[in-house]
Design brief:
heterotrimer; A mainly alpha; B mainly alpha; C alpha/beta; B: mainly alpha; disordered N terminus; C: alpha/beta; Rossmann fold; 3 domains; six-stranded mixed beta sheet; 20 strands; 33% helix
Chain lengths: 320, 365, 505
Amino acid sequence: MDFSLLPEILASTIRLSVPLVLACLAGLWSEKSGIVDIGLEGKMLAAAFAAASSAAYFQSAWLGLLIAIAVSLGFSLVHGYAAINQRGNQVVSGVAINMLAAGLAVVLGNTWFKEGGRTPALPETARFMPIELPWARALAGVPLFGDLAKIISGHSILTYLTILLVPLTAWALAKTRFGLRLRAVGENPQAVDTAGISVALLRYQAVIIAGILCGIAGAFISTSLSASFVRDMTAGRGFMALAALIFANWRAWPALYACLLFGFLQAGGNYMQGAHIGSFEVPVQFIIMAPYVLTVVLLAGFIGKSIPPRASGIPYTKDR
Amino acid sequence: MAGGRGELPTWVDVALIPLLNLTVALLVAGLVVIIIGENPFEALGIMLNGALGSIKGWSYMLYYATNFVFTGLAVAVAFHAGLFNIGCEGQAYIAGLGAALVGLGLEFLPWPIVIPLAILASAIFGAFWAWVPGYLQAKRGSHIVITTIMFNFIAASLMIYLINNYLRPVTRMAVESREITGAYILSFREIAMQFFGLRLPSTPLNLTVFLAALAAWAVWYLLWRTELGYEIRAVGANPAAAIYAGIKTDRIIMITMAISGGLAGLMAVNEVLGVQHRLLLEFVGGAGFVGIAVALMGRSHPLGIVLSAMLFGLLYQGGTELSFAKPLISRDMIVVIQGLVILFMGALEYAFRPALARIFVHVED
Amino acid sequence: MTPAIELIGIDKRFGAVHANKDVTLTIAQGSIHGIIGENGAGKSTLMSILFGFYHADKGEIKIKGQPVKIHSSADAISHGIGMVHQHFMLVDPFTVLENVVLGAEGGRLIGPALAKARDELTRLAHDYELDVDPDALVGELPVGLQQRVEILKALFKGAETLILDEPTGVLTPDEADHLFRILGQLRDQGKTVILITHKLREIMAITDRVSVMRRGELVATKETKETSVEELAELMVGRSVLLRVKKGPAKPGNVVLDVKNLTWKDRKGTPRVDDVSFTVRSGEIVGIAGVSGNGQSELLELISGISRPTSGQIIFEGKDIGILGDPRHVREEGLAHVPEDRQHRGLISSFDASESGILGWHYDESLGRGFRLDRQAVIARSKKEMQEFDVRPADPLLKSAKFSGGNQQKIILAREIERDPDLLIVGQPTRGVDIGAIEFIHKRLIALRDQGKAILLVSVELDEVRSLSDRILVMFAGRIMGERGPEADERELGLLMAGVSKDAA
């Protein structure tokens, strides 16, 4: 492997991690409140499609983002309704949303843009383009700092936003009333109920936050990372985010690190053709597989314990 | 007397609610068709005609149904034990490896030996890919939904690697194995030509369809006429009572997943040995997920599953014809319907009950 | 002084069950008021209504003389009522402070609330001896301290009246004493405490007044000073008409079940079955009396193989079945088990009666050779058992859930008895069962005894235990308090059941 490419790989890592981090935070908010969300993938995909089509139609990345959030929110509310009001099976609901999103995106895309499910390529004005930080150019030639600048500068505004969301999430969960109540409802909803707080309202709020975050994630994928929507473009990121969430033991900062790790594996995979461990050539598929295998290993309890919120996935009924 | 939700008559539960859910799903799909700018009734007509209006349509419908019966049974068996097996896609994929290895590796043996062995290998490979998550759930408490999803992705990468590096003939570029002549399951078309001199339209429908019917019967027999089946259903219906009865729930979870994976694996027999005659990438093509819809609609009963599988076969074939006739309506419309069916049957299934209860249940004074 | 709480004419039904019958109760401010009664007496329902979990069908509530409407626990809390539940409402991964503050954060950010709570906790610890480390994780605290957190929660939210529901069930005697000290302090500082319990000793120890409930009615209210355990026991248990089944004398034979120093500790290390020893002989019925929650359920699960003992032995026909922990094996040795909770363990509601009828015996060769299950044989067997035990309707294909309680119980009983077991253990055989079926079931049990079988009966219905048993063992707090014959005085049994007296070991 060529180490001089490291700055590129790291920059790429950050880029690729953004949707993972956003989806992971979405899953975090949802699961902390006790709602299992398998549908992160579907919401992201729907959002990606919405963003790319709206951006193409309105020639505005921001409008695309807004509509993407709205769409993702819609799916979130469906999931919330099924899980909270109807006390339905949350996993099934998530699977259904994934399928719906995948199908609808292609069907509507095909109808509106007639390119077999793709959306038209977006011009730079309708995308979230990289932003060069002011001091980056100045540092360009400087050893080490120049590389650092290459890694940190040149990301889209959504990327910087995402990085801010991590400490924000951590802070909100730990230091606010809302965060306290949300964490409580995911562990012991009865305790929250007897304290006179609405379990359903809290859970809906969590689900809405998840919807917004997935919306941003999807918009990022199709209007920043790429310049259009392509069928199934989320490519399992939603599940990888779930894996990262489990890997991070449902905590915000470890979630960031886990997503960066998975992002690194994704970025590295592109560069690591021909990498060797001893005399064994590491096939690129193994690198692609790695996050999933790691998650299984973690779930099996081989690397520490993975403890989800106690009430996760269990519909709340006031039974006496 | 009856606890919790009011008791609806059985026929409502078994036939009316699935039909209602399907109708709602179709209504929503119809709305989407309107948004696209086409006439939903016309679309429906084309779909029905495309599936039922010709021998070719019927045969394609049954070919699809064959796959869906296997995956539907797989999901259903797991449901009976209270487990959600989302991993059929990966299990069927890995099973293809088993079929291909036997079919290619043992092609010097006569086909009456190779074909059953290939079928067995498919089942075993698929069973293994499901057994591992089952083991992890039973013994390590790992949530089976997450592990089976992970295993789907692992299978996808693993199979690319294996097919590309070990099964692809060196001289060819296409990432697929060479033709599997050793375990060649005849299609109806070929049978008609070779034995009866009849010319049938081109169709992938092959003898595996009988295997599917047999599997459906076998699952029914297993679940309702054997001790193991009783134990599986007990664990799913009431784990506390199962423990009381001396049933070893851990063991049942693992066995059930293995059976489930084995059934999903049989889907590979249809595709790899009966249609493609080689191991292709992504040959499962989403059948694992259709299985979820089929199992939910069919209420996890083999008869219901066979009917639902045919229904989805109809949708897939009809949908394909529709997408030719009306290019604006993409074939993915079926995926939308699938998703809606799963949503209503699986997560919103109680949504209609209050209304139905008012009609059907007599309130006791 | 105006009473702290007045409950006037409270009436509540749950379907056919009349849980509270026109209950009128006055609770004085600055006092500790006990409410005692057996299972199903209605005490928990009454307090749940006060705390806003249920709405009374009729009646009104007055707090400090003012009529109030309590529709939810938030209402109750706002009126100064706090409740410490039997099963704690705590968030284990949170600290004590976080648990206390939940629901009373007083603002968007919890920082200030936590600081305020910390001060409050220090003050409360000083005033009432409620010491707890505010930063400890609740999940790691011993049960006694967890309970203190529950009390602190209520006080932090401004509770003037504190309801405690069976608080000492999970406490050691020392922890219980400390709790009483705390309650005394609270009372001395003007708070009102309502203590729900079935333990007479506690009532006598710390209450000022005590009300007795029985079968949904408030039977009496007495000044604690002016009454005695004997009187309370009698009021609690009642001079009801005994359903005496006609039976001849028992002819006990060999020891079939020999339980030696059996102990079972739960996850927190509390012994729920504490050094229990007894025997059961063939041809006799041994009844275990006691209020539920005193270890009887755990005892049955140990003997039937569902759980494993922490220490001690269970010798069944010469074999130590305690080490097996396997219900199937135990059944094969000749033990049958009618579980206490038929919906939870005894039947599978969604299965039809014939399939519930083979639960635990489904591997029997008579029901299908080898791995098979012969449907016709299963149905025939079910039909036969239904006819023998007068199950109505005698329809093996009807879903188990659709049978009445009594008929469900008969199906289970038939299933277990028809296996011709050497020992039948049965829990709450007539809970939720109509009179006709009760008689039938009792007759069947006697008949079984007369055939020379051994029966171990567990029931919270004292009448039933006295009517059926040849020997009565009383369980309290996981221990056998004493053994009596069926002719024993109600009062005496009541005292044993309430943990007041204990036979010398």
